[in-house]
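Quick review question:
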């Protein structure tokens, strides 16, 4: 067994976390296939329909606005369903919704209205999956081994991201988007099988709109609330805004696939080591984990400003490769702090409130995108906004002294 496999085997815990591994791997591969190409697909469909670049960009913004507005209003009702049916069935429901989401994207080739159906289905999938998944992981992973436990799943998801964009780029170039979404639909169907080995969990909820307000502005979780805004900005920046920007510069689907798969190679070992490093640094009971998180947060934020001035393949590869190092550690520590907060609160409500604030943040981002398109400065406006909020999320390191 190689050194990397020995380390990875230690990172995979023997508790309930392992039930997510195969499901997470398959699901991550599916979204590695489609995530960066979905905004490109919507843009090209809108462009062919209306013949306007501005309308194409607005259609992409509108897709994510609709999705996140629905998530904002359904997360509390869905959380009550999750409390009743449990985490395993909730994740299974999310898979079924994703399957219909892929089918709607296929149908959108003939009728653009199915894009909005797809937005609704993707929106309903999100709370069923992420609220259930994060609640279960918070319960299953020991606080002292949070980084190691979560890095096991993260490494598998990073491995999926290595080949996903490249494979998708080839499929789109040779067979088109319909073949890509059909393959994704099949893989999602298979991913539901491992969920039946998931152990039983407690399902405490107590969610309310008043609780959401108190969680957002209260001292106990305000740092987690700020981080949710920064995470939403970074996530949609990397999976929607940046791929669309590169496509508009002139990079076709094949080139995008090669770039995103190529720079992802950097992340696997970094992700694994960052999880173990997080646990060791926290055991020192000083500011060392916060210092590392702060350094990578600043680097991640600054790279968004650098992206304003890059236009060639070489520039993109260099900047995104450097960015992967910063982003991987940033995401790793961010996830560890987040799950420590979830364990501290001990309720589904923590993840419901986070998902709701994440949605508010995404709505803000894509509203700014529409405004920016109108004034001709959408890229500059979004990149600066993402940078500022990622930088603000450094306050999440406060969780280290609270858990």
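Suggested answer, residue by residue:
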């Amino acid at each position: 067994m190689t050194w990397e496999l020995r380390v990875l085997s230690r990172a995979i815990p023997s508790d309930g976390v392992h039930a997510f591994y195969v499901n997470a791997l398959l699901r991550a591969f599916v979204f590695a296939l489609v995530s960066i190409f979905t905004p490109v697909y919507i843009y090209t469909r809108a462009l062919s329909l209306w013949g306007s670049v501005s309308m194409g960009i607005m259609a992409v913004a509108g897709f994510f606005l609709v999705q996140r507005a629905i998530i904002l209003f359904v997360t509390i009702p869905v959380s009550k369903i999750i409390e009743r049916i449990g985490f395993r069935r909730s994740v299974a429901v999310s898979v079924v919704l994703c399957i219909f989401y892929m089918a709607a994207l296929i149908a959108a080739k003939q009728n653009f209205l199915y894009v909005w159906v797809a937005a609704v289905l993707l929106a309903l999938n999100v709370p069923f999956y992420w609220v259930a998944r994060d609640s279960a992981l918070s319960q299953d992973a020991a606080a002292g081994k949070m980084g190691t436990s979560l890095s096991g799943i993260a490494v598998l998801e990073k491995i999926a991201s290595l080949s996903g964009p490249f494979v998708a780029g080839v499929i789109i170039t040779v067979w088109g988007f319909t073949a890509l979404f059909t393959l994704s639909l099949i893989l999602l169907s298979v991913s539901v099988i491992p969920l039946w080995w998931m152990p039983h969990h407690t399902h405490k909820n107590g969610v309310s709109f008043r609780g959401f307000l108190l969680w957002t502005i209260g001292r106990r979780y305000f740092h987690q609330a700020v981080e949710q805004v920064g995470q939403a900005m970074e996530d949609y920046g990397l999976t929607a805004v940046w791929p669309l920007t590169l496509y508009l510069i002139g990079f076709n689907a094949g080139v995008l696939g090669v770039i995103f798969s190529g720079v992802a190679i950097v992340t696997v070992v970094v992700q694994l080591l960052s999880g173990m490093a997080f646990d060791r640094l926290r055991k020192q009971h000083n500011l060392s984990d916060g210092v590392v998180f702060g350094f990578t947060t600043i680097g991640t934020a600054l790279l968004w400003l650098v992206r304003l001035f890059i236009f060639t393949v070489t520039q993109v590869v260099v900047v995104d490769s450097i960015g992967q190092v910063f982003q991987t550690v940033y995401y790793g520590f961010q996830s560890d702090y987040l799950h420590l907060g979830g364990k501290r609160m001990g309720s589904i409500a923590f993840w419901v409130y986070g998902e709701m604030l994440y949605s508010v943040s995404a709505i803000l981002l894509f509203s700014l995108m529409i405004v920016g398109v109108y004034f001709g400065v959408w890229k500059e406006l979004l990149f600066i906004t993402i940078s500022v909020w990622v930088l603000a999320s450094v306050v999440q390191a406060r969780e280290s002294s609270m858990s």
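Why it works: Residues 53-85 form the longest helix (33 residues). Confidence is low (pLDDT under 50) at residues 1-17.
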